[in-house]
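Query structure, 236 tokens:
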């Protein structure tokens, strides 16, 4: 399903550290002035935010790997799906709209999701963020970069066969409103249609790393670990 993406994915090469340093220098200039709250941008922190996007279909294993990265490298984990579900449970003005949108297998409006992510980032004392399950669309991506004022440093794409993702979601029994066969199929269709342009965009930007999301949790993490280990030397 993802053969087209595999050919575009970045690899970890001997030039990786040089690329890392170059990217971080770019971030310093990109994030200058992001402290302007009046413009809806994140408050200043002692260190430049280091942002990782996790992309992959439902059941591709992003959440489990995020936990491992948080434990190993000290990131703050922000799950777009969890934030949306929490908003539904809060009975807020946006909650009913979010619930109906998710039930239909559609994408929640970008500004709503970005607003929830932004709030969590502002409240955090951390400067390293894993944003799980976002951006799902080009509109998501553009909205995030416009509202937050920065691009991600790293984008991970979890490449997993569709049948495996369906099996994992149906077996996890976590009581999520969107964990049923009909909704999963809709979500996979939407993901395939809308997320490929995002994946390709970040591949062309040299920020995409494809993870083959088959195997044990530890086996998959061994693909993830070198990426963050290399960046850790620079961002701390």
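Result returned for the query:
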């Amino acid at each position: 399903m993802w053969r087209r993406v595999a050919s575009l994915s970045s690899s970890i090469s001997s030039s990786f550290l040089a690329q890392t340093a170059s990217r971080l220098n770019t971030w310093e200039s990109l994030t200058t002035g992001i402290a302007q709250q009046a413009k809806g941008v994140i408050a200043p922190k002692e260190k430049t935010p280091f942002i990782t996007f996790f992309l992959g279909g439902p059941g591709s294993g992003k959440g489990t790997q995020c936990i491992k990265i948080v434990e190993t490298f000290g990131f703050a984990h922000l799950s777009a799906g969890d934030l949306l579900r929490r908003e539904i449970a809060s009975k807020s003005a946006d909650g009913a709209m979010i619930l109906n949108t998710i039930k239909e297998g559609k994408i929640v409006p970008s500004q709503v999701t970005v607003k929830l992510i932004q709030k969590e980032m502002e409240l955090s004392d951390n400067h390293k963020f894993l944003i799980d399950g976002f951006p799902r669309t080009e509109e998501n991506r553009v909205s995030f970069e416009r509202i937050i004022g920065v691009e991600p440093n790293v984008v991970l794409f979890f490449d997993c066969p569709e049948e495996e993702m369906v099996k994992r979601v149906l077996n996890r029994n976590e009581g999520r409103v969107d964990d049923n066969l009909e909704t999963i199929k809709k979500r996979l269709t939407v993901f395939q249609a809308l997320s490929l342009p995002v994946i390709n965009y970040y591949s062309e930007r040299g920020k995409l790393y494809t993870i083959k999301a088959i195997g044990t949790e530890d086996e998959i993490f061994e693909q993830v670990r070198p990426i963050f280990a290399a960046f850790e030397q620079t961002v701390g």
